Amino acid sequence: EAGVVQSPRYKIIEKKQPVAFWCNPISGHNTLYWYRQNLGQGPELLIRYENEEAVDDSQLPKDRFSAERLKGVDSTLKIQPAELGDSAVYLCASSLFSSSYNTEAFFGQGTRLTVV
Amino acid sequence: AQSVTQLGSHVSVSEGALVLLRCNYSSSVPPYLFWYVQYPNQGLQLLLKYTTGATLVKGINGFEAEFKKSETSFHLTKPSAHMSDAAEYFCAVRSTNFGNEKLTFGTGTRLTIIP
């Protein structure tokens, strides 16, 4: 069974340009997370979806970041315009319903974004 | 609010020696606790987790961790280090409150194994 699939793996863009990341979660997983991992840091949650509903987007910088999860499956995270400080690894994860005590989040390999 | 503190951003041990990675957490409610491992240019892989029941939990690759409520700790250990254990390790906490299920990670500990 395929795990969480993210694309692209690497992206280099100039500042002020837009960029988008795509995530395909594990089949059947209702919960999808986007995390940002800065160099030398732990991942920080940007947004969490339960099916197609964003249930926690309190850490998403809404002036330039947007996300969607149409039909409750694939998800796209967009940055427009990108800033130098957005350089990081963007991780997608999925799990069964997050309210289950025995749930586990499975992570994709991430997209490494470099803004120059 | 919840938080995780990992003591020591870098830990080096000799091959065959004991591995001890420290994690302390803060949570207003009983937490769920996790250890993840990250190899270079890879995503995070779950090593082990504590949710309920036995406080000593065993994970993959010979790792184990013990939940100590009185010390608010969840240290990760392995009796004998192997070269393949070299990686970054993240401790994470998750609230048991419904509606607040996000994982909060520590800043990570990079483990180096000395041949």
Written description of the protein model:
The complex is a heterodimer of chains A (116) and B (115). Chain A contains no helices and eleven strands. Chain A is mainly beta and 116 residues long. Chain A is globular and about 40 Å long. With 115 residues, chain B is mainly beta. In chain B, a hairpin with a 7-residue loop joins strand 10 and strand 11.
- In which range does the helix fraction of chain A lie? under 10%
Radius of gyration of chain A: 13 Å
**Rg of chain B computed from alpha carbons, rounded to a whole number of angstroms:** 14 Å
Q: What is the number of helical segments of chain B per DSSP (H or I, 4+ residues)?
A: 0
- Multimeric state: heterodimer
* Biggest sheet character of chain B: 6 strands, mixed
The structure class of chain B reads: mainly beta
Mean pLDDT of chain A: 91
SSE run of chain A: EEEEEEEEEEE
Note the total helix count of chain A.
0
Which consecutive residue ranges of chain B, at least 5 long each, have pLDDT under 50? none
Distance between the termini of chain A: 37 Å
Which series of helices and strands of chain B comes N to C? EEEEEEEEEEEE
Distance between the termini of chain B: 41 Å
Strand content of chain B: over 45%
Q: Which stretches of chain A of 5+ consecutive residues score pLDDT under 50?
A: none
State the helical fraction of chain B: under 10%
What structural class is derived from the secondary structure elements of chain A? mainly beta
Largest interface: A-B, 25 and 26 residues
Question: What is shown here, in short?
Answer:
The complex is a heterodimer of chains A (116) and B (115). Chain A is an all-beta fold and 116 residues long.
Structure characteristics:
heterodimer, A: 116 residues, mainly beta, four-stranded antiparallel beta sheet, 47% strand, globular, B: 115 residues, 0% helix
